[in-house]
Write a structure and sequence with these properties.
The complex is a heterodimer. Chain A is mainly alpha-helical. Chain A has 10 helices and 3 strands. By secondary structure, chain B is an all-alpha fold. Chain B has one domain. The chains are: A mainly alpha, B mainly alpha. The interface between A and B is large, with 52 and 34 residues.
Chain lengths: 292, 156
Amino acid sequence: MAGENQTVSEYIVHHLTNLTYGKLPGGYERYDGSVVADGGAWVMAHGGDEAAAMGFSAIHVDSMIWSIGLGVVFCLLFRSVARKASSGVPSGVVNAVEMIVGFVDNTVKDSFHARNSMIAPLALTIFVWVFFMNLMDLVPVDLIPHTLMLLGVEYQKIVPSTDPNITMGMALGVFILMLYYSITIKGVGFLKELTLTPFNHPVFIPINLFMEVVGLLAKPFSLGLRLFGNMYAGEMIFILIAALFSAGIMWLLPAALMQIGWAIFHVLIITLQAFIFMVLTIVYLSMAHEDH
Amino acid sequence: MNINLTLIGQMLAFVAFVVFCMKYVWPPIMGAMQERERKIADGLAAAEKAEHDLELAKEKSVERLKEAKQEAASIVESANKRASQIVDEAKQTAVVEADRVKASAQAEIEQEVNRAREKLRGQVGALSLAGAEKILGASIDQQAHSELVDKLVAEL
């Protein structure tokens, strides 16, 4: 466990705090009593309070590094396979990658009927990247954060998808695509869809607009928050199980069993959540392409 | 759990990875897979065609075999016919030849018999003349009696 004198709640909070780099506002009193000079200062946040005080002008260094790192792993892995890809007999990792590509391609073909060469690569990227990010959940919760702590890095959250910034960032990316395709493909039809459905009468335009805009906005939020919620809850349970290990020698066996059980169950969840994120992206973009 | 610049950072990373995937990952893999799909389909079609061809060839060979057998049978039959014909012909020629030989032999025998008879007749004449000469003891005018003898000879 991180730190010998921590209480359980401190341990949990510590595990749920991102390594944050950001700008503290001027006049803020830091943890060590020093006061930030006027005009603010870019520093590494010490604890959740400072991170909160930074507001929007901060960045979760750990989330970004793990997320981009895993994205790079995805790109390198799939690029190396793409280089080797031939119409001959596939083997080893090529087989596995082709299976995933074929699976994604089938899913896209099943639910996306317009012609757009971007959707399939987008879906593949989402599926594999989100799966990799979720996979970090299966790394024992203390292994990497504690190792890094010994090296002087205070906070570390290694599962990017337990950070709402990460999941909402992707969801917003999808949302922008949805808006883009809705406007370019439907044009005026998109406006009609927003104002004249479900009640096709000019009187109902405000009501229609309100309902449709809420419905539209709900899509990226549900997309991002579903993934975040599932992964956050899963991570939380791993942390609680890890905390249980410190509760005494007689808790060792039950905690170990719970750890194994939850990890096995979680294998299903991380795959399922990656799949759901991909499928919903495809479905939303498919809706953006279909003119009613 | 604050919303901050990470959001923007993730969005940019997202775009970058999607673009990378779209340009360098998806097309080659998909191309290879489709190419392989096409190859397999071609291979299966070729195999099916080959099987069909084999079937046809089998049928043809069976037919050929049947034809050949028939031909062989007819050849044997005509050979048999020809053989018996030859035998018949040979028999006939043999019979004819035998008849001819027999006839010529008969003719020769007859000739010989006639010749012998003539000779005998002559000798009998002379002999009877000599015998008569001896019996009469006298010289008989050969000329006077030759008429008689000739008559006797003609009677023989």
